[in-house]
Amino acid sequence: MSSPAPQDTGHQRLWSVDEHLADILATVRPLEPIELQLLDAQGCVLVEDVTVPVALPPFDNSSMDGYAVRTADVQGASEEFPAVLTVIGDVAAGSGELPTVGPGQAARIMTGAPLPPGAEAVVPVEWTDGGTGGGAASGMTPAATAPEGAGGEVRVHRAAEARAHVRARGSDVQAGDLALAAGTVLGPPQIALLAAIGRGTVRVRPRPRVVVMSTGSELVQPGEALAAGTIYDSNSFALAAAARDAGAIAYRVGAVADDADTLRSTIEDQLIRADLLVTTGGVSVGAYDVVKEALTSVSAGDDAAEAGNVDFRKLAMQPGKPQGFGTIGPDHTPLLALPGNPVSSYVSFELFVRPAIRALMGLPASVVGRPSVQAVLTCDKPLGSPAGRRQYLRGKYDAEAGTVSPVGGSGSHLIAALAHADSLMVVPEDVTSVESGTELEVILLG
Q1: CA-atom Rg of the chain in angstroms
Q2: Do the Cβ atoms of 308 and 333 come closer than 8 Å?
Q3: Between residues 83 and 220, which one has the greater pLDDT?
Q4: Which helix (H) or strand (E) element contains residue 242?
């Protein structure tokens, strides 16, 4: 979908959603790589190709608990005529010196243990009497009572082909193979692979540190009593959780009162631990919109290069028309100022802050945002949308049916509806009414 040309509303330009996002991504730079221990690197983006130093597994090993045997010794074995073999010892996982399996012999072997010399296959314990002299076994005799307690021999009731139940050396990866490519996000399976090939540390871009703060003298922390005219601060909790979900380390700052000096001081205090600052509230045109007041005065300070610059804009979108973006402080830390209405704040996060976090992590622009799909709208009555605004409506997406239905109304204060939505339905700027059966772009939130 192509974005419309910027509009002019009086003296202030009206930015498109795509322009604003492009401006953010052009400013945000990936964090510098560092070397981290494996668990500390979880969620980070790899900055170098990792090759396999040794084959995995590094030796032939058993995939079952059972007996290592020579195939000729169990050829033709059956329930009626079992092959009777002498048990020469145990081979446990981690065993160093291994017994050699000769004709008529077997070695008890555990899952993951190296295949001993002379052995060609492994017969599972369930194919044997477990060395008890009875019928088919369901498990191994404990090591503390074997092989003496097992009588020193085992009856095998089924034949085995060569290499049966043997995991070959290098069957997972070979030495020199590419284990993980640069750009990979390290989740639990990737951490497991790195550990399995012997890597104790890895070079990555660290998870961004995101400081979230909400503004408003009416805000009270959850758990405290509400006084007349006050509400609970939900935005800072929602945005801190969303930042974590995006891959960041999030720091939530308690709500700041409507005082520009206090806000400015709080922001300056937080710069030391922030790769990205996010504020919510105070960006419109009211008399108490302190974020705009505080950051505009910072941007216009005597030392502009030291202070940075924050631009406050109106976007052709609903919800989330008022937005602020720029850099602040000596290190020019990126700052995104979001509107204060809960839905406006959350939608703005998904469209602008999440991509900024992912860009800081080092992910390419093509994958920093949420995935989107096309879905057919199902609704009882047409949905209205303001002319010239790209509208984002909360929706419930049915992947199997390929449909999406609205959740709640379009009000930017409706938190309950947001909690039950799993997607955002996108209504283009040039569309003012959408009827059931219309195909829409749907941004998936989960």
Answers
A1: 32
A2: yes
A3: 83
A4: helix 235-246
Residue at 242: amino acid letter:
A
Residue type, 134: G
Is 102 within 8 Å of 118 (Cβ atoms)? yes
Question: What is the residue-wise DSSP string for 81-118?
Answer: SPEEEEEEEEE-TT--S-----TTEEEEE-TTPBPPTT
Query: Measured in whole angstroms, how far is the alpha carbon of residue 367 from the centre of its chain?
Result: 13
Q: How many angstroms separate the CA atoms of 406 and 238, rounded?
A: 21
What is the spatial distance between Cα 266 and Cα 264, in angstroms, rounded to a whole number?
5
What's the CA gap between 147 and 277, in Å, rounded? 66
- Listed residue (385, 389, 409, 403) closest to 440, CA to CA: 403
Give kind and range of the element (H or E) at residue 18: helix 17-27
Tokens 């059956």 appear where? 78
What is the structure's pLDDT at 144? 64
Q: Residue 145: which region, alpha, beta or left (left: phi > 0; alpha: psi -120 to 50)? A: alpha
For residue 147, is the peptide bond before it cis, meaning its omega torsion is within 30 degrees of 0? yes
DSSP letters of 28-55? --PPPPEEEETGGGTTPEE-S-EE-SS-
pLDDT cut 90: percent of the chain above it: 69
* Per-residue model confidence as pLDDT tens digits over 337-394: 999 899 999 999 999 999 999 999 999 988 999 999 999 999 999 999 999 999 999 9
More confident residue, 387 or 4: 387
3-state secondary structure of 296: helix
What is the rounded distance in angstroms from the CA atom of residue 361 to the CA atom of residue 158? 55
Does residue 151 carry a pLDDT above 80?
no
Question: Residue range 147-158: average pLDDT?
Answer: 74
Judge whether 194 and 28 are in contact, CB under 8 Å: no
Q: What is the pLDDT of residue 254?
A: 81
